[in-house]
Amino acid sequence: MAGSEVAADLWINEYITPWDIYTHGISRVLAYKKTQYQDMYVVETGVYGKALVLDGKWQSCTGDEYLYHEPLVHPAAIFHGSPRNVLVLGGGEGATVREVLRWNTVERVVMVDIDGEVVEACRQHLSEMHQGAFDDPRCELVIGDALHYLDNTEQQWDIIISDLSDPIEEGPSFQLFTKEYFEKVRRALHPQGYFVVQAGPVSPGELKLHCRLTNTVKAVFENVRNYSSHVPTYAAPWGFIVGSALDIPDRPHPEATDQLLQQQTKGGFRMLDGVTLLGMLQIPLHIRQAIAAETTVYTLKEPPKFFGKGTAGSGG
């Protein structure tokens, strides 16, 4: 194309649908390993900084990760008001723990990730994301299986965050988007606690996974709210689901939210405040209609199968 300059020789092609590919130009590969569980790249891009890529799927990158991690963590924490004990399932980059630790009320956060080699690579290469969160005395890192941890924890958690990689069939996490998994979460959650799950894209062509996950969370929790945040490097607005036995407001007062964040956190937010939270909770009509029409509940017998992996190679 006239006037265009291609600046990368290495590209990661992420298959979004059978007809759509998001191609990320890579300036440098910082780490690569085929771990016991998945293919891992830590790469540097020309526009969005450093990124973690698992099984060819973009996880997050330093240039826009706050558009994912702040919405993942803080709405549930705001609904609770003063979380003390937080469990993070997944979260290899450490950015989710970083956001949890913004809350002055938090006394303990445990992060459970199955792939220690991914966590170690992130500790080494993605300090911009974890910002030393792993070294905070309130943080406990467990390399292990989320299901096993849920079965054996004696703690009743104020907030449980499911920050797992997408449920592709060959990956390590597809079982962790099912009714049986959410039931284990419910048993480990304090009666006044909140559960949040990263719940896939909400673009029109990819909406089915989010709607079915919503149905699955609704099969376990009395109250459920959906919201989303646009993350440019995901090529789509990304969905989240909160579940609780308690009511979850869909029109929280912005000034009250801002006051709570000022009193209970150390601040430093880049995208989330009272106005942002109120806006995220106003779900567009087409998404509300798609959720209302969905009947499928994911189970271990019929788990979700997220589309596609990705490839790395030279050429555009």
Distance between the termini: 13 Å
- At the first level of CATH, the class of the largest domain is Alpha Beta
Spans of 5+ residues with little confidence (pLDDT < 50)? none
Q: Decide which structural class fits the backbone.
A: alpha/beta
Order of helices and strands: EEEEEHEHEHHEHEHEHEEHHHE
Count of DSSP strands: 13
Considering the protein shown, what is the CATH homologous superfamily of the largest domain?
Vaccinia Virus protein VP39
Would you give an account of this structure?
The protein contains 10 helices and 13 strands. The protein has 316 residues and is of the alpha/beta class. It has 2 domains: 10-63 and 308-314, Spermidine Synthase, Chain: A, domain 2 (Roll), CATH 2.30.140.10; 66-293, Rossmann fold, CATH 3.40.50. A 7-stranded mixed beta sheet has the order 8-7-6-9-10-12-11. It has a 6-stranded antiparallel beta sheet with strand order 5-4-3-2-1-13. Strand 2 and strand 3 (39-45) form a beta hairpin. It is globular, with a radius of gyration of 19 Å. The two termini are 13 Å apart. The model has no long low-confidence stretch (mean pLDDT 91).
Write the layout of secondary structure elements.
Layout: E1 10-17, E2 20-34, E3 39-45, E4 50-54, E5 57-61, H1 66-80, E6 85-90, H2 95-100, E7 108-113, H3 116-125, H4 127-130, E8 139-143, H5 146-152, E9 157-163, H6 179-188, E10 189-201, H7 207-218, E11 223-231, E12 236-244, H8 254-264, H9 274-280, H10 285-293, E13 310-314
Parallel strand pairs: 6-7, 6-9, 7-8, 9-10
Antiparallel strand pairs: 1-2, 1-13, 2-3, 3-4, 4-5, 10-12, 11-12
